[in-house]
Amino acid sequence: MLQLENLTALRGQCPVVDAVSASIGPGELIGLIGPNGAGKTTLMRAALGLIAHQGDSSLARLDPMARARAAAWLPQAREIAWGLSVAELVALGRLPHGRDHGAQGAEAVAAALARMGLENYRVRIATQLSGGEQARVLIARALAQQSPLILADEPIAGLDPAAQIETMEVFRAHADAGGAVLCSLHDLGLAARHCTRVWVMDRGRLVADGPPATVLSRALLADVFHIRAHFEDTAQGAVFQALSTLKR
Ligand SMILES: Nc1ncnc2c1ncn2[C@@H]1O[C@H](COP(=O)(O)OP(=O)(O)OP(=O)(O)O)[C@@H](O)[C@H]1O
């Protein structure tokens, strides 16, 4: 679904994404984690071909319409420019499939609204919703796109705990249905509980790639995140709690 080969993105002379090679297949929910400034957003934007890059991304090679059918993009900034109704905004997710929304389009929009619990918001003006409600609308638009791959930049930031869990469950369901999701996260607990795999970025490099329980070792948490944490695999799933900071 996505292959990256030596993907590199420069800011000035400085590589903020440095020779990243990795791939994503169906069924995966990948948590892209790393400290502030590690290069997570830049990696996703380069993979999508939204910024200049070196190396190769299988998505960036596609023409824009084919790329939009292959991957939905949820940027960190949740900007809703127009005062459209929620249903109209979510229907914009159908644009990569042509102007005629048709029965399949209407079904996809209805399913996305239902999945995000937005049926009662259909006629509300999207710009008049709360930040968390707008976030759910934008996720619904991405789901309505029916692209196999979703790239989401901090999709749970600013959401209440229930909405965070629900969002991760929506992504997991998308992966379980044969799609895949790459989402950047700062909540390592949610990453550990919900993701099938994590990619860890540090200073532009992909320094670890594997199942959360293997990757989130005491040494990695100290080296990359400068924290000490409690991490335990329990009957209720992985439990993670950051305990204290370590000297950088
Ligand atoms: N437009 C830009 N011009 C110059 N430097 C930039 C630009 N965008 C990002 N950078 C730099 O690139 C590096 C990586 O930024 P990026 O936004 O990818 O990090 P991130 O891992 O997503 O961070 P965060 O967790 O804080 O959102 C940072 O050092 C940042 O200052």
Strand order of the largest sheet: 5-6-7-3-8-9
User: What's the CATH topology label?
Assistant: Rossmann fold
Based on DSSP secondary structure assignment, what is the total number of beta strands?
11
Secondary-structure element series: EEEHEHEHHHEHEHEEHHEE
Which structural class should the secondary elements be placed in?
A: alpha/beta
Please tell me the total number of domains: 1
* Oligomer status: single chain
> Ligands bound here?
adenosine-5'-triphosphate
- Please count the helical segments: 9
Helix content: 25-40%
Could you give me the name of the CATH homologous superfamily?
P-loop containing nucleotide triphosphate hydrolases
In CATH, the architecture is 3-Layer(aba) Sandwich
Task: Please provide a written account of the structure.
This is ABC transporter ATP-binding protein. Pfam families: ABC_tran. GO terms for molecular function: ATP binding. Part of the ABC transporter complex HmuTUV involved in hemin import. Responsible for energy coupling to the transport system. Residues 2-228 form the ABC transporter domain. The protein is of the alpha/beta class. The protein has one domain: 3-Layer(aba) Sandwich (Rossmann fold). It has 9 helices and 11 strands. It has helices spanning 40-47, 64-70, 86-91, 102-115, 131-144, 161-176, 188-194, 212-215, 218-225; strands at 2-11, 14-24, 29-33, 54-57, 71-74, 149-153, 180-184, 197-202, 205-210, 227-234, 237-245. The strands form 3 sheets. A 6-stranded mixed beta sheet has the order 5-6-7-3-8-9, with helices on both faces. A 3-stranded antiparallel beta sheet has the order 2-1-4. Helix 4 packs antiparallel against helix 5 (131-144). The chain is globular. The mean pLDDT is 93. The structure holds adenosine-5'-triphosphate.
